[in-house]
Design brief:
The protein is built from 6 helices and no strands. The protein is an all-alpha fold. The chain has 2 domains: 54 residues, no CATH class; 72 residues, no CATH class. Helix 1 packs parallel to helix 3 and helix 5 packs across helix 6. It comes from Salmonella diarizonae. It holds the Pfam family GemA.
């Protein structure tokens, strides 16, 4: 078995557990999708098809390694998060970078938690993270011009 096959089978077994499938359900899905009774007998394409089916059934997708996941924030903060995301993408940084700024500034490790307890519509904290990112981008652009 190749390392790719092993990792796909591991993902399928994780999906089976997360979806709460018993062995009979898992075997019937595998048989219906691939015509085989064991994941070790499947090709890489068939294993990927099984994983796609599991995603359609509610098995969550993983974010690419090193990029983190986009924070799930309230509607009034989505524009600010979109700006932060654009700044991160422009410099090839991960969400962990923005969360590190939030941790340094506000002692909160997740961007979702940056709100005022008294006034949930107050966006000052997440806005401050965005401003720090903009300042960093300007500083970097200025340094690149000097080179």
């Amino acid at each position: 078995m190749t390392p790719v096959t092993t990792s796909l089978i591991r993902a399928i077994k994780t999906g089976q557990s997360r979806l709460g499938w018993d062995n009979a359900t898992y075997k019937s899905v595998l048989l219906r999708l691939t015509g085989k009774d064991s994941s070790t007998k499947c090709s890489i394409r068939e294993l990927k098809d099984v994983i796609e089916y599991m995603h359609s059934q509610g098995f969550p997708r993983q974010a690419p390694k090193g990029k983190g996941r986009r924070p799930n924030v309230a509607e009034q903060r989505k524009a600010i998060v979109a700006k932060i995301e654009a700044l991160l993408a422009e410099d090839g940084l991960s969400w962990a970078y923005a969360e590190g700024i939030a941790l340094q500034m506000w002692n909160e490790s997740l961007l979702e938690w940056l709100n005022n307890k008294d006034d949930p519509r107050d966006n000052k904290k997440i806005h401050a993270v965005m401003v720090a990112m903009v300042k960093r981008a300007r500083k970097k652009k200025k340094q690149d011009k000097q080179k």
